Amino acid sequence: MNDQASTTPHKRGNSKGKQAQPSPEITEENMSDPEDDCPRDEAISEIAYYLAEARGFEPGHEIEDWLEAEKRIGASAASLENRVAATS
To answer: Which of 28, 40, 66, 88 gets the most CB atoms within 10 Å of its CB?
Structure first.
């Protein structure tokens, strides 16, 4: 009898033969509706774009641009609220 077969360790974690998991199916139910898009996010995106454009689209500042745009939108909203409150 061949004892070598019983003492050979089993290979674990071998990726051969494993198949990638299929991505979820895209259906009408799980797609976002363009009419449901947040106007605030659209405004932030537009401001972030113009900030990037002013810098010549230098990569690596995307988050910085988004946060700056959020800050500007917040300041603009606060200013508008103050003006509305002052006229009431």
So the answer is: 66
Measured at the CA of 75, the angle between CA 72 and CA 80, to 5 degrees, comes to 125
| Interval 15-46: pLDDT, tens | 455 555 565 666 656 555 555 568 999 999 99
Domain segments of the chain as ranges: 34-88
Cα separation, 72 vs 80, whole angstroms: 12
Q: Which residue has the higher pLDDT, 49 or 27?
A: 49
- Of the two residues 78 and 17, the one the predictor is more confident about is 78
